[in-house]
Amino acid sequence: MTDRDDKALAGEYVLGLLEGAAERDAERRFGSDPAFAREVEGWRARFAALDDTAVPHPAGDELWRKIEAGVPAAAARTTPSSGAWTRFWNNLAALRATALGASLATLVLAVGLGFAIRAASQQPTMVAVLLDGNRAGAVVHAFADGRVVLVPITSIAVPAGRALEVWTLPSRERGPVSVGLMNQARTLQLSLKDLPPPGTDQLFEITLEPATGSPTGRPTGPVLFKGNTALAL
User: Fold this and answer.
1) What is the pTM (predicted TM-score) of this model?
2) Domain coordinates in residue numbering, the chain
3) What CATH number was assigned to the domain covering residues 126-231?
């Protein structure tokens, strides 16, 4: 299967379009295939802004019966301005279509506005590309709401009994601080709750440590990838 096929399959998995054996196979690959898992996490991040949109609920038959019952009485009290308007008003099918169209237009506008607001709020304010020489291994996104997320963009081999530990250097006086630990490369929300928001030119790095993390509270293993933050464009 090509990378493009994997990307499409991951998108269908996130949207819930797979069924039966295809869904079970995607679930198995998500747990065992790091590359496929990254594709899934990428699609989940893209669709995150739609998570809070409301599911539309159509009007029930009882509501339409009440509308139908009220239309003749209202029409009897109203002097028609023209034959065409009278025919339209007495045509309940046209009335339903107009009401439904207005409801759908309002829903689309609300969803679109909510999506735009959420998308704008989710743009990172700081970005750090973590490199191993000239090869990019991960990207750190820092958001205005305080979230800091690491996204791997290449495969990282992790030997048995070892783990990847993420560090940042808020200041030289304080020294490196561990902000995340994972047994395989994956999208990870970093824990900076006791630290100030990342500033410009702040160091982030990934080291290879024991499975339970560095025993000293400082990096002890080799540095796999590192980079400094810069203002997001």
Assistant:
1) 0.51
2) 3-51, 61-119, 126-231
3) 2.60.40
